[in-house]
Amino acid sequence: GVAAADGQEVPASTEAGAGAAAPAVRATDEEGASDAEEAAAGAPPKAAADAAVPPPLGDMEEGDGKAVDALGARLAAVPPPLGGTCGGARSGEGGAESDGAGDDGRVSELGPLRHPDAPPEVASPRSQATSDSSTVAMSPGDDEHVDVAFAPPREGSQSSLPETAITSAPSPAGLLSDSDALSPSTALGRTLPNEIRYERDAGAAIHETEPEGGGFLEDMKKHSWGGSDIPQLVVGEEQVIRVFCGVWNLHGKPAPADLTPWLETKPTHHVYVVGTCECERGIEKSMIWSDKSRFEAQVLGHLGDEYMLVGSRNMSAIHIIVVAHRHLGGYIWNIDTAQVATGIGNVIGNKGGVQVGFYVGHTSLLFINAHLAAHQNKMGERTKNHTRILMESSLRKDKSLSGVHKEFDRVFFMGDLNARVNASREQVDEWLAGGQVDECLKHDQLLPLLGANMEDSQSNGECGIWPDFNEAEIKFPPTFKFDKRSDVYDSSKKRRVPSWTDRVLWKRDNKITCKSYGYVASLRCSDHKPVFAQFEVEVDLREWKGPQFEGRDKKSKACAMQ
Question: Using the 8-state DSSP alphabet, how is residue 378 labeled?
Fold first, then answer.
């Protein structure tokens, strides 16, 4: 059953000829409005007709406002998934188990395959969902069944999961080697990631269907360096690497099967950094079931065998994954991850930031993905969130500096920063209708803080530490908030002001050059549009002779807890 608004359980009957429709369930988004309320308050005429259509499998939240029996009828007609089962792994007979239900940081390893909508109760009784967990490998012996619709395998495709467990360990010296990287095609079967079909009506992928209630917006073009291959690095010189940063708040939905419109592989990049919020599950569900290994496997499968996982970190619904080309494998070392919660009591991870730091040669890089406080009037709180994420990071070693960003050479801060436009909805609609994006940007809450004097950058100041960061010129429409599966800005009774909530920033540095900054309009499975930025980043490989670990002559202490 699913929890109704009054806290009672509503049975999800799948038997034909069930009686009266079960009560419609309801949920609220992070700003408190239910879909049912919005529909009753003057949603577009087409929304009323859509209310009678069963939602896509895996897309029914406790708030879609649909009869539960409609979902039951659909489930009855769904074929079983490829391979029959899909579950977590156990490390040995009677060994420790974990389903990655809580906060998790990983370095060069691939976790279990999970269906994004699998609730905690689907897991085996032998596995327990905890608030903190480690990632374990996938084993074929699991007997948990997950109701997920897979497209039928094409002729010659692999229709079952591999029979061997997937494991990986980083090399002793801290370097990434070929043995550390996992082949996503081996992990998931050659065709499995691309065979996952996120259905809607006739089964077409959401981003390929015509949007409801509005025409197509155009995707922004990405920068092309010319040629299909990335340049290899040369020891002894300062080198330029290509870095791709992508951010997307998926509003509790799984990512589309085809990530190409967002994560293009031509041109290729040395490093891909993908930050998501509410990927596969919303904030509330992610507090219990936060595992993102399925999405990580999808990203690795999309980029191909030439790429390997550097590190990832997950805190509730906030996730970051860093993937590098094999050309960098011999230069990457000293990888570490961290997380900082800024939610309730600065303890709960519904808001906060996740971080991955590492070296390329002599140059240290830090990537942070954050989800800051929501609501139009909370920019002051967002500034405090930003400061806390930088100051309270466990990667910060020198407490005399104003934040962890001062200890790394190249720093990127991105995510759903939730900055809003300080104008009325009517005024913003008028500006956008006239193509006056610049007028909207004059009222953006974040830009004045980024443009403040560096002397005003203080942890306890009105501008916080925002002046330490820079952003490329914005030449695309607001990325939030859209009606479901459309290019129409919020038509609910709240009529939220269209805003640039999703941003990519970097610490001011003349060795970082932004080559493009844009959004992807054609992906419509969320109320946010995905955003991307491409960079050229200088790294120092002069006199590079391998990792330079300090204090190797000193004794070390270790403590293990279970």
Answer: -
- Alpha-carbon distance 289 to 269, whole Å? 32
Sign of CA dihedral 212, 218, 223, 225: positive
Cβ–Cβ under 8 Å, residues 361 and 539: yes
Q: How many CB atoms lie within 10 A of CB 258?
A: 17
- The secondary structure of 89-112, three-state, reads CECCCCCCECCCCCEEEECCCCCC
Residues in the chain: 562
Measured between its terminal Cα atoms, the distance across the chain in Å is 34
State both tokens at 327: 């050309």
Tokens of 410: 């190249």
Pairing state of beta strands 238-249 and 271-277?
Answer: parallel
What's the one-letter identity of residue 402?
S
Residue 40 Cα distances to 32, 65, 211, 482, angstroms: 15, 11, 21, 18
Contact of 353 with 398, CB cutoff 8 Å: no
Give tens-digit pLDDT for 89-99. Answer: 333 333 333 33
Chain centroid to CA 241: how far? Answer: 23
> Strands 363-371 and 238-249, how do they pair?
unpaired
Q: pLDDT tens-digit profile of 490-542? A: 999 999 999 999 999 999 999 999 999 999 999 999 999 999 999 999 999 99
Question: Which of 98-102, 170-174, 175-179, 242-246 is most confident?
Answer: 242-246
Residues near 171 by beta carbon (within 8 Å), at least 6 away in sequence: 177, 179, 180
Q: Tokens standing for 290? A: 């936060």
Angle at 459 between CA 454 and CA 464, to 5 degrees: 60
DSSP label of 528: B
**Residue 9 has which token pair?**
């359980």
